[in-house]
Amino acid sequence: MTILLNFTGTVLPNRKTNPIARLFQASNVNLYGLTFTGGISSLGTLFNLASPAFTR
């Protein structure tokens, strides 16, 4: 596993991002979530994590 983003950061780009809900998985298999603060004007963000392609 690799940490992609730390929501408890104190400096940009991770400052004050406070996730407020669980991740949810859309029909396109990507995961989505929300933050209470961060983003433009510190009004929060909607973010997604694309699912990697698995090979067998």
Describe the protein:
The mean pLDDT is 75. A hairpin with a 5-residue loop joins β1 and β2 (31-35). The chain is 0% helix and 21% strand. It has strands at 24-25, 31-35, 45-49. By secondary structure, the chain is an all-beta fold. The chain has a 3-stranded antiparallel β-sheet, with no helix packed on it. It has no helices and 3 strands.
Keyword list:
3 strands; 3-stranded antiparallel beta sheet; mainly beta; single chain; globular; 56 residues
| Strand residue percentage | 15-25%
Mean pLDDT: 75
Please give the alpha-carbon distance between the first and last residues. Answer: 18 Å
Put simply, the count of helices is 0
Question: What helical percentage do the residues reach?
Answer: under 10%
Radius of gyration: 13 Å
Q: How would you classify the helix and strand content by structural class?
A: mainly beta
Q: Which spans have pLDDT < 50 for at least 5 consecutive residues?
A: none
Please provide the ordered H/E string of secondary-structure elements: EEE
